[in-house]
Write a structure and sequence with these properties.
The complex is a heterodimer of chains A (about 400) and B (about 260). Helices cover about 50% and strands about 15% of the residues of chain A. Chain A is α+β, with helices and mostly antiparallel strands. Chain A has 3 domains: about 110 residues, Acyl-CoA dehydrogenase/oxidase, N-terminal domain (Butyryl-Coa Dehydrogenase, subunit A, domain 1); about 110 residues, Butyryl-CoA Dehydrogenase, subunit A, domain 2; about 140 residues, Butyryl-CoA Dehydrogenase, subunit A, domain 3 (Up-down Bundle). In chain A, helix 4 packs across helix 7 and helix 7 runs antiparallel to helix 8. The longest helix of chain A has about 35 residues. With about 260 residues, chain B is of the alpha/beta class. In chain B, a hairpin with a 2-residue loop joins strand 8 and strand 9. In chain B, helix 2 packs across helix 5 and helix 3 crosses helix 4. Chain B is globular, with a radius of gyration of 22 Å. The chains are: A alpha+beta (about 400), B alpha/beta (about 260). At the A-B interface, helix 1 of A face helix 2 and helix 5 of B.
Chain lengths: ~400, ~260
């Protein structure tokens, strides 16, 4: 068993850390305060070719795996950028996966090089207000009119929709009743222009990550040429599955990175802050929770690397990807919470930075899949228990 | 134009250096190793010269342990074309003169038009290498440069070196040795493609015998490293500002003898 990164992976880790840390914690504080998209940060990663990390080399990317993409996102989060920095970058990693695996050659040639170069900002349209996790019940529908599809419906929690130029959109092309035996059939993936004359965007104000917008979108007669269907008509949900495990692995490792960033600051503070004539870190009531959180974060990290390794080696990784996300979200949250507690009153103040991470990490217990749904997956698919819903 | 950039692998600037069990060296456990920052300015400048002239070759070279290859790989990822790794038991306890002799020998073999150093490595801060190498080669040398322009015919360089409050401008015939000061440029971060390409570029191992050098004992030996004594605590002068200032001035004059 070899736990070591390759020389190239080590180098990726080091260089991403250096680039990510060239953006200060004050930069992120400011972006959060002003709810401003971190354009400069994305530009730096775009300029150095990081956005094409998983796009195959023949389409202008670097053709690396989920392991390398995980290293990228881990270092961004560990640098203190948090989900404000990770979210815009990971949109170049897992949403293109169905395109890479299932799109026609023409579609790949047209778009993958532009995604790799960072010239496209993508949004991802799957979740709906009336369907949630039960994706088979989405109501957005696409109807064929000659050589075009006309799409109508609503989506919610669309990251990036304020700036997106393209959207990967899932819509029903066959009504659910007509495929009742196989309700996940009859949905189709479209790689559509984000046509703002046909899509209305409403931003959702939220607990954290103000810098990166989340939205509800209303689609009114959006027209998509038939050649922009990704993969096969009716098979869209199955094409989407290819990006779900990477998404869980990547968000898991992000939570790990955020936990580490919070712990790094808290540990430093515990060494320096003197109360009752000694550094507070000398008190086991301060030290043990930090040590415990560290151990949990490290353990969750191991599961992330295992899941990434399995995925990159073409092996099944559903159990590991769900476990990685589940445990990383718990461990990351505990780390941020313990860190905030270590700072005492100052932890509640924005200027000590941990407060932002604490708000951001909460997201990972909900998205991209809730802790409860990850447990459902494990109960049903790993333990073989009867499905509860 | 061929440009040779000697670099050194050093502990990351954020490292809290501890003296090792053997007090002649530091404890290297857990240290992150980097290319010395001044050397990065040198690599960056060499790459810019090559890019501006549209042709040329940038060769990174280091003398050091096996681990120092990582630093060369970083230079290759930034864009250097190839690298030379001087590694030999003969250089185990090399002092600056031994290193300078090895570098001068490799420079004679490679015959670059320009050698670009960082002004000093940030570990031992000796800053001896550029001048020693230039002396051994009999080449002109300008240290701590803040700007440079190579003439179109590639025969000379106009270099500005930092002096107190001004720039000292030199016209220097090539080949020559320059050393980079902070402010010369802003070094680039390697691109992902650069990192991936780096593993395909050559790092050639060079032994002392390849340079026709025999082991010559170091003339400079480290006896021991000693930690600085801890800083004495500061003193707070209590009382009304007017009174406190009087006491402060008295103390600065009589106790500290600073004014």
């Amino acid at each position: 068993m070899d736990f070591a990164f390759t020389e190239q992976q080590e180098m990726i880790k080091k260089e991403v850390a250096a680039l990510a840390r060239s953006f200060s914690l004050d930069y992120w504080l400011e972006k959060d305060r002003k709810a401003e998209y971190p354009v400069e940060f994305i530009e730096a990663f775009k300029k150095n070719g990081w956005l094409g990390i998983v796009i195959p080399e023949e389409y202008g990317g670097s053709g690396l795996g989920v392991t390398e993409a995980s290293i990228l996102l881990h270092e961004i989060c560990a640098a203190g950028a948090g989900t404000s920095g990770a979210s815009p970058i990971h949109f170049y990693v897992f949403p293109p996966m169905p395109l890479i695996k299932h799109a026609s050659e023409a579609l790949k040639r047209r778009y993958l090089p532009r995604i790799a170069a960072g010239d496209i900002i993508m949004s991802f349209g799957v979740t709906e207000p009336n369907a949630g996790t039960d994706t088979s019940r989405i109501q957005t529908r696409a109807e064929k009119k000659e050589r075009r599809w006309v799409i109508n419906g609503r989506k919610v929690w669309n990251t990036n929709a304020q700036h997106a130029t393209k959207i990967l959109l899932l819509a029903r092309t066959t009504p659910r009743e007509q495929v009742a035996q196989k309700p996940f059939k009859g949905m189709t993936l479209f790689f559509a222009d984000f046509d703002r004359s046909r899509i209305t965007v409403r931003e959702i104000e939220k607990l954290g990550r103000a810098a990166v917008d989340s939205n509800e979108i209303f689609i009114d007669n959006l027209e998509v040429p038939e050649e922009d269907v990704v993969g096969q008509v009716g098979e869209g949900f199955y094409h989407l599955l290819d990006s779900l495990n990477p998404e869980r692995i990547l968000t898991g490792i992000e939570a790990v990175g955020i936990g580490k960033a919070a712990l790094e600051r808290a540990v430093q503070y515990a060494k320096e802050r003197v109360v009752f004539d000694r550094p507070i870190g000398k008190n086991q009531a301060i030290a043990h929770p930090l040590a415990q959180a560290w151990a949990k974060v490290e353990t969750a990290e191991l599961m992330c690397w295992k899941a990434a390794w399995l995925f990159d080696h073409g092996r099944p990784c559903g159990a590991e990807a769900n476990t990685a996300k589940l445990m990383a979200a718990e461990a990351g949250f505990e780390a941020c919470d313990v860190a905030l507690q270590t700072f005492g009153g100052y932890g509640y103040a924005k200027e000590f930075y941990v407060e932002r991470l604490w708000r951001e990490i909460r997201l990972y217990k909900i998205a991209p899949v809730s802790q409860q749904m990850a447990l459902n997956y494990l109960s049903e698919h790993v333990l073989g228990l009867p499905k509860s819903y | 134009m061929k440009i040779l950039v000697p670099i050194k692998q050093v502990p990351d600037t954020a490292t809290q250096v501890k003296i090792g069990a053997d007090p002649k060296g530091i404890d290297t456990t857990g240290i992150t190793w980097i290319v010395s920052p001044y050397d990065e300015y040198a690599v960056e400048e060499a790459l810019r010269i090559k890019e501006k002239r549209g042709q040329g070759e940038v060769v990174a070279v280091t003398l050091g342990s096996e681990r120092a290859k990582e630093a060369l790989r970083s230079c290759l990822a930034m864009g250097a074309d190839r690298a030379l790794h001087l590694s030999d038991p003969a250089w185990e306890n090399a002092d600056t003169l031994t290193v300078a002799r090895a570098l001068a020998a490799v420079i004679k073999q490679e015959a670059p038009q320009l050698v670009l150093f960082g002004r000093q490595a940030i570990d031992d801060d000796m800053g001896a290498m550029p001048a020693q190498v230039a002396e051994l080669l009999g080449w002109p040398c300008a240290s701590w440069i803040m700007e440079e322009t190579i003439s179109d015919d590639g025969k000379s360089v106009r270099a500005g070196r930092q002096v107190e409050g001004a720039l000292d401008i030199f016209n220097i015939p090539l080949p020559c040795v320059l050393s980079a000061q902070k402010g010369l440029n802003e070094p680039r971060y390697p691109t992902l493609k650069g990192i991936m390409g780096a593993k395909k570029k050559e790092i050639k191992d060079v032994k002392a015998a390849d340079l026709g050098l025999a082991a010559d004992g170091a003339q400079l030996l480290v006896v021991a490293l000693e930690a600085l004594p801890p800083r004495p605590p500061g003193r707070v002068i209590p009382g009304e500002p007017a009174e406190a200032v009087k006491e402060l001035v008295r103390s600065l004059r009589e106790d500290a003898k600073a004014i």
